[in-house]
Amino acid sequence: MDYIRAFIVGGLICVIGQLLMDGTKLTPAHVLVAFVTSGVILTAIGVYEPIVNIGGAGATVPLPGFGYSLAKGVFKAVNEDGLIGVFTGGMQATAGGVSAAIFFGYIMSLIFNPKSKS
């Protein structure tokens, strides 16, 4: 049942993104920024945590989940370190994912021959 809930929640997030790109003039970059920002805002007002509890990885893996991780890291760091946690908490919480993205992106650029679109 956990897999089904994750599939439904993650699928709904993807449907929202696709509708935004198809129905508006927003570019994928705009949608990316909107999703990460909405993840932070929804976490700050307490709405995203119940979505994570229901959807699990379906809610934490997509882009709003990155915003969720940033916000949770900031909340934790502020509680532990005070005001300096506003600046350090988000990166501490997401450093593993960011490092993995950079590392695997580099490996893929070595394996494949990247080309310009034009």
UniProtKB/TrEMBL annotation:
Keywords, sorted A to Z: Membrane, Transmembrane, Transmembrane helix
Specify the superkingdom. Answer: Bacteria
Would the keyword Ligase turn up in this protein's UniProt record? no
**Chain coiled-coil ranges:** none
* Ranges that cross the membrane: 6-22, 29-48, 93-112
PANTHER family given in the database record: STAGE V SPORULATION PROTEIN AC-RELATED (PTHR38450), STAGE V SPORULATION PROTEIN AEB (PTHR38450:SF2)
Full protein name: Stage V sporulation protein AE
